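FAQ: What does the model actually see?

It sees only this:
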Amino acid sequence: MTTNFRVGHGYDVHRLTEGRPLILGGVRIEFEKGLLGHSDADVLTHAIMDAILGAAALPDIGQLFPDTDEQYHNADSIALLREVREYLSRAGYAVANLDATVIAQRPKIAGYKAAMINNIADALKIASDQINIKATTEEHLGFTGDGSGIAAHAVALIERMEI
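And it is asked to produce this:
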């Protein structure tokens, strides 16, 4: 039996470091540090991709876009999200809704959320009102609270496409 709706959860974390741009949701954010990673290290987009892939029971981003493959060195995560949408479409699903949370003591992202939502919606070919992005601090606790890194959680609801 197949279901019409499926839910997936994604999580990602990257260390903050000097000399890298900070990219979240495909938006370059003015900040003194960026995220360390093989690609652009966009934790928000990575969490969203894994949530979508998990909902469809497809391989995760580590399998699809391995950090051992030079083709993905400094890759644009929004471009990778477009590829994830293609995988999802071939599996017979489309994104119905995304809800994501960025966890960082700094920087504040409120002024960037609309652009992030627009980038993600465009890549997934869905409406911006199908996406919610929130941010929270951890009250100076843990690696996100002490400014060592940024994390993101995402939940995706996907639905079977009409044939």
